[in-house]
TrEMBL record:
<dbReference type="InterPro" id="IPR002182">
    <property type="entry name" value="NB-ARC"/>
</dbReference>
<dbReference type="InterPro" id="IPR036388">
    <property type="entry name" value="WH-like_DNA-bd_sf"/>
</dbReference>
<dbReference type="InterPro" id="IPR027417">
    <property type="entry name" value="P-loop_NTPase"/>
</dbReference>
<protein>
    <submittedName>
        <fullName>NBS-containing resistance-like protein</fullName>
    </submittedName>
</protein>
<keyword id="KW-0677">Repeat</keyword>
<keyword id="KW-0611">Plant defense</keyword>
<feature type="domain" description="NB-ARC">
    <location>
        <begin position="1"/>
        <end position="150"/>
    </location>
</feature>
<dbReference type="InterPro" id="IPR042197">
    <property type="entry name" value="Apaf_helical"/>
</dbReference>
<dbReference type="Pfam" id="PF00931">
    <property type="entry name" value="NB-ARC"/>
</dbReference>
<dbReference type="InterPro" id="IPR044974">
    <property type="entry name" value="Disease_R_plants"/>
</dbReference>
<dbReference type="GO" id="GO:0043531">
    <property type="term" value="F:ADP binding"/>
</dbReference>
<dbReference type="GO" id="GO:0098542">
    <property type="term" value="P:defense response to other organism"/>
</dbReference>
Length: 246
């Protein structure tokens, strides 16, 4: 919820950055992964980004075959790879062999919420960028854009100013928490704001870990009953699984 993925995505999707590399790929790793599937995703991303035909029979390739395809493809290229949401140092130990050091200025960006992963010596020159919470004014501006989108100039009404500032303070500068709470408040009438504030205080005393999770739980709690069922149904899908819609 601190904006790690958003920051890296802004860099990764910048055409000025992409022009510096022969090929680019983005991998969302998460807590559970299969290394063969990550190799397949890398191959697919590299080829599709360059509008090249993806190698045939990739689904049935063995680990060694997939590894050979990747090494051969990257051998003379300058590449950029993002490994998003890494939870375990083990990933690097498994994937580095497929990302050859071609000494051409390739870059690997990794996002993680774990300090031990970020500070691990990966055998290459590395730099850690710690995401800082939003400044008070930035958090307020972000909250206002969400909570007061229907108001004139997206400005907070004077009668809600004090309560709104207290709500933003509860988010402790975490962008996801600010956006989630702002979205929740955008549908509330002025007389309901105090109720939400009291309810938020109640949720923050519960043992549910993390400030963002507590605020997201409050948003879930506020959903109409049918939507809660829909939300819980979606949670049955594996993490990062693409859910189709009609």
């Amino acid at each position: 919820g601190s904006g790690k993925t958003t920051l890296v995505a802004k860099t990764f999707n910048d055409e000025r950055v992409k022009k510096q590399f022969h090929c680019c790929a983005w991998l969302t790793v998460s807590q559970t992964y299969v290394i063969d599937d990550l190799f397949r995703s890398l191959i697919k991303e590299f080829h599709e980004a360059n509008k090249e035909k993806v190698p045939a029979g990739m689904k049935t390739m063995t680990y060694r075959q997939l590894l050979q395809v990747l090494v051969n493809y990257l051998e003379y290229k300058r590449y950029m790879v993002v490994l998003d949401d890494v939870w375990d140092i083990k990933l690097w130990k498994e994937i580095w062999i497929a990302l050859p050091n071609t000494k051409r200025g390739s870059r690997i960006m990794l996002t993680t919420r774990r300090e031990d992963v970020a500070s691990y010596c990966f055998g290459v020159q590395s730099h850690i960028h710690h995401i800082q919470p939003l400044e008070k004014n930035d958090a307020w501006e972000l909250f206002s854009r969400k909570a007061f989108s229907a108001y004139q100039n997206k400005c907070c009404p004077p009668d809600l100013q004090s309560l709104a500032e207290q709500l933003v303070k509860k988010c402790e500068g975490l962008p996801l928490a600010v956006v989630a709470l702002g979205g929740l408040m955008s549908n509330k009438e002025p007389f309901e704001w105090k109720q939400v504030y009291n309810s938020l205080d109640s949720h923050l005393t519960k043992p549910l870990p993390g400030r963002v999770e507590n605020i997201l739980f409050l948003s879930f709690d506020d959903l109409p009953y049918p939507l809660k069922h829909c939300f819980l149904y979606c949670s049955l899908f594996p993490e990062d699984y693409p859910i189709r819609r009609k």
